Amino acid sequence: MIAVLALMLFYRPRYVHSAAVPQNSTDRLALIDFKQAITGDPREFFNSWNNSVDYCNWNGVTCSKTHLGRVRELNLAGQSLEGRISPSLGNLTLLKILDLASNSLSGQLPDLNRLRKLQILVLKFNNLQGLAPNALKNCSSLKLLNIGGNMLAGSIPPELGFLYNLSALNLASNSFTGVIPSSLGNITQLEYLFLYNNQLEGNIPTELGQSAKLFQLNLGENRLSGSIPTTLLNHSSLAVLDVNTNFLLMELPSTIGNTLPRLYGLGLNNNMFQRQIPASLGNSSNLSIILLTSNNFTGQVPSSLGNLSLLQRLELSDNQLQGAIP
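Structure for Leucine-rich repeat-containing N-terminal plant-type domain-containing protein, as requested:
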């Protein structure tokens, strides 16, 4: 699999404490309810969450500087917390960042629809099993949603397509089934889409090509069939296209190296691609990784691949190719 580019999806929390500020009963009660739903705290992270400490100085809590007493960030990543996510978090209506990554939280993601200011939601690497279709429908300010590495099953909610301001969406390494919702193509600001390592099937939606800023698309390790839509193969901003380990069957267009001018990584391995490898790939001067193993490619290995000065990985085995690798 093509290595995922370093990006905001791997957001690192900052534990910043605010000075004493006026109390807000709603925000304080929401935090207390959240704590009560936690059944395991092996690192005693919540020791500071008591009446003798201003809640704006509780571990992982950061309050707003402009709206005194209102919680702006909640960062509890990597604390080995067990339990469920309390729906009371939906009452923190000025919350902008919620990071609960790398814990052992289980159950269903509750309704957070009142968090209209929320911009970053990171729940990766937990044990969440459910995602209600409308849990995030009104979180229209979200720019980053990372719930990869959980146990989420069922269909990907089409309602995620209402999150128009998303620039990064990571649903990878779950157990999602069904098709990729075409509504994801409505997220016109989307730059990073990771759906790899699920059980998705059906065709790749043509609508994904509507996201004009799409930079990295990883759909590998699913059960997708059909072909790669022309809208993606002609996508001038796409730098990484990884669809490895699916059931895709098609002939690559002869112009692919010209229509994907920014392409850095191409992962087509473990599919059923056939016929010749287009010589135009040698025109895609940014190509660094080309993974084409275990397909049905035939003919000569294009000598033009030798023109790729940035090429670091070229994997062509388990095909029916002739000639030497340039």
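The chain has one domain: 70-322.
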